[in-house]
Amino acid sequence: MKKEQVKKPYEKKQGRGKVLVTMVDIPTQRPYSLSGLGIYCHVSERFILDFEKRLQEKGDEEAKGFLAVTTHIREVISTQQLEGATVGAFNANIVARKLGLTDKKDITTDGESLNKGYYDLLKQRKMKQSNQQ
């Protein structure tokens, strides 16, 4: 990816008008990401993650200084994503998943394993019915 492509905003299509709808391109901001930083720096996201891991293992003053920088970068990325989703510039569902902000509720299995087979579930249902009688 070329630097010009990274700087160029995405454009989303939006309809304008009440009777005769005209589609117009609206420039939007690109969401920051660790992989986007890697593309800009010509390294992979894995390289950045491994670099941070090596810094944590090293633990000297120089490593702590670099870790402060990488921590700040992560905070800028997550803040920009969250604020962009909040104002509607980015898809809120995708950003919430990416930042780990989703609610995790079990609404279908009552806490039971999903790995049970069909016949196990039928057997369990018959046992419940026989216990109720």
Helix-strand pattern: HEEHHHHH
Specify the CATH class: Mainly Alpha
Helix content: 55-70%
CATH fold field value: Topoisomerase I, Chain A, domain 4
Helix count from the secondary structure assignment: 6
Distance between the termini: 68 Å
Class per helix and strand makeup: mainly alpha
Approximately how much beta-strand content do the residues carry? 5-15%
How many individual β-strands?
A: 2
Strand arrangement within the widest β-sheet reads 1-2
CATH architecture: Orthogonal Bundle
Radius of gyration: 24 Å
The low-confidence parts are: none
- Indicate how many domains the architecture comprises: 1
* Mean pLDDT over the full residue set: 79
Described by strand count, sense and barrel closure, the largest sheet is: 2 strands, antiparallel
The shape is flat
InterPro entries: GP3_package (IPR032066)
Protein name: DNA-packaging protein gp3
Concise synopsis of the structure shown:
The protein has 133 residues and is mainly alpha-helical. It contains six helices and two strands; from the N terminus they run αββααααα. It is 56% helix and 11% strand.
What does this structure look like?
The protein is mainly alpha-helical and 133 residues long. It has a single domain (3-103), classed as Topoisomerase I, Chain A, domain 4. The chain is built from 6 helices and 2 strands, in the order αββααααα. The protein has a two-stranded antiparallel sheet. Strand 1 (10-16) and strand 2 (22-28) form a beta hairpin. The longest helix has 26 residues, at 61-86. The protein is flat. The N and C termini lie far apart (68 Å). 3% of the residues are buried. The mean pLDDT is 79. This is DNA-packaging protein gp3. It comes from Cnuella takakiae. InterPro entries: GP3_package.
